[in-house]
Amino acid sequence: MIKVTYIQPDGREATVKARPGDSVMQTALNNNVPGIIAECGGSMACATCHVYVAEAWQTQAGARKDGEEDMLDCAMSEMRDTSRLSCQIKLTEALDGLRVYLPEEQG
């Protein structure tokens, strides 16, 4: 089982179990992790599932998909080098232990 840790802006952490093939966004929703809105349901049509991937996990999480950076430009919180749309990160066993930080605001 894959585990993902979501870190709130105030430092609180929630580690949840995930299924291979699910996205980081869907896993957050399935486990009632606050801070992921996901207005578009994962179709990369909004930026309400913005996360910052922990630097140690950037390579494993992969590069941004085509069009992802354009959506991140619309995010409420600052876009950083580690910014990703969590709907675009598909979980595999290689991502067991993934840590993502939630931004101050989504929208």
Named CATH topology: Ubiquitin-like (UB roll)
Strand pairing plus helix content: what structural class?
alpha+beta
Mean pLDDT: 96
CATH homologous superfamily - what is it? Answer: Beta-grasp domain
Widest sheet: strand order?
2-1-5-3-4
Major pleated sheet: 5 strands, mixed
Number of strand elements: 5
Relative helix content: 10-25%
What is the CATH class? Answer: Alpha Beta
**Which band does the percent of strand residues land in?**
15-25%
Radius of gyration: 12 Å
Order of helices and strands: EEHEHHEE
Q: How many DSSP H or I helices? A: 3
The second-level CATH architecture is Roll
How many structural units, i.e. domains? 1
Shape: globular
Uncertain segments are none
- For the termini, the CA-CA separation is 31 Å
GO biological process, one term: P450-containing electron transport chain
Family: Belongs to the adrenodoxin/putidaredoxin family.
Cofactor: [2Fe-2S] cluster
Domain 2Fe-2S ferredoxin-type: 2-106
Describe the structure.
This protein is α+β, with helices and mostly antiparallel strands. The protein has one domain (2-101): Ubiquitin-like (UB roll), CATH 3.10.20. The chain is built from three helices and five strands, in the order E-E-H-E-H-H-E-E. The longest helix has 7 residues, at 24-30. It is globular and about 35 Å long. The chain starts with a strand and ends in a 6-residue tail after the last strand.
